[in-house]
């Protein structure tokens, strides 16, 4: 006997499905392009610092 939720979501997912389904307009949204640019910039800075020191 499986327990059913009124929303039709999985009970065994420990709330992760509900977390990812919700979109909060107050939260910070970062585009994937910005994350990649920041990662490349940090990598270049670290490589330059290793080369200098």
Summarize the structure.
It contains 2 helices and no strands. The chain has helices at 16-21, 32-52.
- Helical percentage: 40-55%
Radius of gyration: 21 Å
Main sheet: strands, sense, barrel: none
Mean pLDDT, to the nearest integer, reads 76
Order of helices and strands: HH
How many β-strand stretches?
A: 0
**DSSP strand (E) fraction?**
under 5%
**In one word, what is the shape?**
rod-shaped
The CA-CA distance between the termini, in Å, is 64 Å
What's the helix count? 2
Low-confidence stretches: none
The class by helix and strand makeup works out as: mainly alpha
What does the model show?
By secondary structure, the protein is mainly α. It is 51% helix and 0% strand. The chain is rod-shaped and about 45 Å long.
Describe the structure using short key phrases:
single chain, 53 residues, mainly alpha, translocation, membrane, transport, SecG/Sec61-beta/Sbh, transmembrane helix
Structural topology:
Elements (H helix, E strand, L loop, with lengths): L15 H6 L10 H21 L1
